[in-house]
């Protein structure tokens, strides 16, 4: 029987072709070095923050593995010759930041939307537990998914990353494309975001269709996202945006213009509402129903694969290994099962304590049951995610659908035992967050381990590196999200006569000061007369004076995935959603499915501002034109200069966006923002000029995309 130093072979089965890693099993090279750990952690922090920013803006993130691998090759070579295994450790640590950021931002902003404070400690511990469980639960699966099924499970992104690392060993200047894109993204974003040299978004309001509006953000990060996700997804998102902005909103405006009273869930007559207010009051619920249905459809369609994947993985883990021949070489060493068991128990204990002392105090039985539910759902979806990524790739991994499935299961269990209080909304979201983060990080972990298997890394060292990536990224992810939320939070005057102080004695309240005056700050939820939110109440007359409008949930940071999760939980446990609007979204999603389109892409487009999906569409269109002109395949485009330049645009635009949020804290926006109009005059506010500048940026992307 032929044996391989890097493969696990069954005597009773025909073995696959012997895999020979790029670095032989008997060769020792620098791998988990101090400089690799530091550089990888820095990249994890960067791309974790970028993922949070993108997730809050558009509900999407992009894989960081290839950009980090390319930059690692360049930077480590500048610091002294690096090994391919050292470069792989950098991308392994760095990719953890992106997956943790995605899992957090898809769920945890829902705390604010459900009326709970977004506390750093809550985000940190839940993210830490989910991230570590994603790695730990994946370790027993590695030998079966990565080694045994090497020829069957392709892991496309992991394989592509390995090819990039191997190509980097042979020399090249791929990283130049990323760094140029990063610089262009930063400068471009500052010019319009801070100095206001041109308008954002650009807007077209056709005179032949009164009241309609088509807008386009001019941001480099959205252009880059569109290029990476491709034309089909980008065009379907834009179609959903157009359906929302030039069809649904117009219908509501047309039929509601003569209604003299507020129509729930709106708080003022439709005739007095702007397009943005109609979208916020009505269309978001339609979008929520469509996105939730899209997630369930993706989950149902993947169910045969999910069931067979879980059965196969469970069977392989539990089968006898008495006939198995494993050479105890470097490429076969994993972290011990003792580490896996002890680490998992510590994470489960952490989940229990955060639930019991921070989220649902006093409910011992409910918190114990919730912790057990996390283990069951977490292990199931980690197993499913790890295998699905091998079949479909991480970009097609239905993390949102799996999270919705976990939330549905959790809420149904809660309803069955009678847990319907406001606190259990936070418990349900916490369970969904841990499961989402664990599944997202497990998918990234399996991709990284596949990359390591091809290049010849030591699994044990990669698994340690992944834990390092989790530990470093969870710190920055929580602070980034809460900090961005604070910077975009505003306080506005409101007139809500329905509020009566004498009726609200049981609501959550605390003292607050605004403009030198003391108020009662009330968190109101579940009142059909008053939108959920935090309100400043005058102690003297007992009336609402101001509303605290959080950045998360606003037009600038809509947090679409988290908004859907929050709406789903609230609808199931409180049963106070405007179900007519939600069911309209369900109907739209089912029609889109019958048309053969990607339901989630269209549904997210309905939910997001059309300006966001328009910019993404432009990026996808540029990719399609470049592929047609050059004759490249989609796979070549995925690893080409256009993708690397787009990654730079995304990182640069997001980093500049974070910097601008910090800049806003110094209250100098008006001073610096006057520079552009002072120099360009009327052009700075001209919609056509704004689009010309944006298309010029798109042309630069096209030039890079044409390079093979």
Q: Helices and strands in order, then pairings?
A:
Layout (H helix, E strand, L loop, with lengths): L8 E2 L23 H25 L6 H14 L5 H22 L4 H4 L6 H19 L3 H7 L7 H14 L5 H19 L8 E3 L9 E3 L3 H10 L1 H26 L18 H27 L1 H16 L5 E2 L11 H23 L4 H29 L6 H19 L4 H34 L3 H30 L1 E4 L14 E7 L2 E8 L8 E6 L5 E6 L10 H14 L5 H16 L4 H9 L2 H21 L3 H5 L2 H24 L4 H5 L1 H6 L6 H19 L3
Antiparallel strand pairs: 1-4, 2-3, 5-9, 6-7, 7-8, 8-9
Helix pairs in contact: 1-3, 1-17, 1-23, 2-3, 2-7, 3-5, 3-16, 3-17, 5-13, 5-14, 5-16, 5-17, 6-16, 7-16, 8-23, 9-21, 9-23, 10-11, 10-20, 10-21, 11-15, 11-18, 11-19, 11-20, 12-14, 13-14, 14-15, 14-16, 15-16, 15-18, 16-17, 16-18, 19-20, 21-26, 23-26
Q: What's the arrangement of strands in the largest beta sheet?
A: 5-9-8-7-6
Biggest beta-sheet profile: 5 strands, antiparallel
Number of helices: 26
- The secondary-structure class comes to mainly alpha
Q: Which ranges are low-confidence, i.e. pLDDT below 50, for 5 or more consecutive residues? A: 1-17, 320-325
For the record, give the distance between the C-alpha atoms at the N and C termini, rounded to a whole number.
43 Å
Describe this structure in words.
The chain is mainly alpha-helical. It folds into three domains: 27-177 and 297-317 and 332-488, no CATH class; 180-284 and 600-705, no CATH class; 490-549, no CATH class. Helix content is 65%, strand content 6%. It has 26 helices and nine strands. The strands form three sheets. Strands 5-9-8-7-6 form a five-stranded antiparallel sheet. A two-stranded antiparallel sheet has the order 1-4. Helix 2 runs parallel beside helix 7 and helix 23 runs antiparallel to helix 26. The chain is globular, with a radius of gyration of 26 Å. 54% of the residues are buried.
């Amino acid at each position: 029987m032929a044996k391989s130093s890097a493969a696990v072979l069954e005597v009773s089965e025909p073995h696959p072709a012997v895999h020979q890693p790029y670095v032989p099993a008997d060769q020792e090279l620098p791998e988990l070095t101090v400089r690799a750990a530091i550089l990888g952690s820095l990249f994890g922090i960067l791309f974790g923050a970028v993922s949070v920013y993108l997730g809050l803006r558009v509900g999407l993130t992009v894989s960081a593995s290839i950009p980090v691998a390319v930059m690692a090759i360049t930077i480590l070579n500048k610091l002294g010759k690096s090994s391919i295994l050292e470069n792989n450790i950098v991308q392994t640590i760095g990719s953890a930041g992106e997956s943790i950021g995605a899992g957090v931002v898809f769920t945890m902003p829902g705390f604010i939307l459900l009326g709970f404070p977004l506390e750093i400690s809550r985000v940190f511990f839940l993210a830490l537990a989910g991230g570590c469980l994603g790695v730990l639960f994946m370790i027993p699966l590695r030998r079966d998914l990565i080694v045994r099924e090497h020829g069957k499970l392709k892991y496309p992104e992991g394989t592509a990353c390995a090819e990039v690392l191997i190509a980097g060993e042979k020399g090249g200047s791929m990283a130049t494309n990323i760094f140029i894109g990063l610089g262009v993204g930063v400068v471009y974003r500052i010019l319009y975001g801070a100095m206001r040299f041109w308008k954002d978004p650009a807007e077209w309001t056709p005179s032949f269709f009164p009241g309609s509006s088509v807008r386009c953000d001019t941001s480099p990060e959205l252009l880059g996202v569109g290029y990476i996700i491709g034309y089909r997804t980008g065009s379907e998102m834009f179609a959903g945006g157009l359906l929302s902005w030039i069809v649904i909103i117009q219908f509501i405006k047309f039929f509601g213009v003569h209604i003299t009273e507020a129509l729930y869930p709106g708080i003022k007559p439709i005739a007095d509402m702007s397009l943005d207010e109609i979208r916020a009051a009505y269309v978001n619920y339609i979008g929520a129903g469509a996105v939730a249905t899209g997630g369930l459809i993706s989950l149902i369609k993947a169910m045969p694969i999910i069931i067979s994947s879980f059965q196969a993985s469970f069977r392989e883990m539990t089968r006898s290994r008495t006939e198995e021949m494993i050479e105890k070489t470097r490429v076969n060493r994993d972290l011990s099962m003792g580490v896996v068991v002890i680490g998992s128990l510590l994470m489960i204990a952490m989940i229990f304590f955060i639930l019991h002392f921070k989220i649902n105090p006093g409910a011992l039985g409910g918190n114990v049951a919730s912790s057990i539910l996390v283990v069951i759902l977490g292990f199931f979806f980690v197993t499913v995610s790890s295998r699905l990524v091998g079949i479909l790739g991480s970009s097609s991994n239905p993390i949102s659908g799996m999270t919705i499935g976990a939330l549905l299961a959790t809420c149904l269990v809660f309803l069955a035992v009678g847990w319907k209080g406001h606190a259990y909304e936070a418990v349900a979201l916490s369970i969904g967050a841990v499961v989402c983060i664990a599944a997202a990080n497990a998918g990234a972990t399996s991709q990284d381990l596949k990359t390591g298997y091809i290049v010849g890394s030591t699994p044990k060292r990669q698994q340690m590196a992944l834990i390092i990536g989790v530990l470093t990224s969870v710190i920055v992810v929580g602070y980034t999200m809460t900090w961005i939320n604070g910077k975009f939070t505003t306080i506005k005057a409101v007139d809500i006569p329905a509020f009566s102080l004498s009726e609200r004695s049981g609501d959550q309240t605390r003292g607050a000061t605004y403009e030198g005056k003391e108020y009662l700050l009330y968190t109101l939820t579940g009142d059909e007369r008053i939108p959920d939110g935090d309100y400043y109440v005058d102690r003297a007359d007992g009336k609402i004076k101001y509303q605290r409008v959080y950045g998360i949930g606003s037009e600038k940071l809509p947090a679409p995935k988290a908004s859907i999760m929050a709406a789903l939980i609230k609808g199931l446990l409180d049963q106070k959603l405007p179900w007519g609007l939600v069911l309209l979204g369900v109907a739209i999603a089912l029609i889109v499915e019958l048309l053969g389109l990607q339901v989630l892409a269209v549904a997210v487009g309905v939910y997001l501002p059309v300006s966001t999906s328009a910019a993404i569409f432009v990026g996808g269109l540029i990719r399609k034109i470049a592929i047609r002109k050059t004759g490249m395949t989609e796979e070549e485009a995925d690893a080409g200069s256009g993708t690397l330049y787009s990654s730079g645009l995304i990182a640069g635009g997001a980093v500049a966006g974070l910097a601008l949020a910090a800049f806003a804290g110094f209250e100098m926006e008006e001073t610096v923002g006057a520079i552009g109009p002072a120099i360009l005059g009327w052009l700075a506010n001209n919609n056509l000029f704004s689009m010309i500048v944006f298309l010029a940026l798109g042309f630069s992307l096209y030039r890079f995309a044409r390079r093979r």
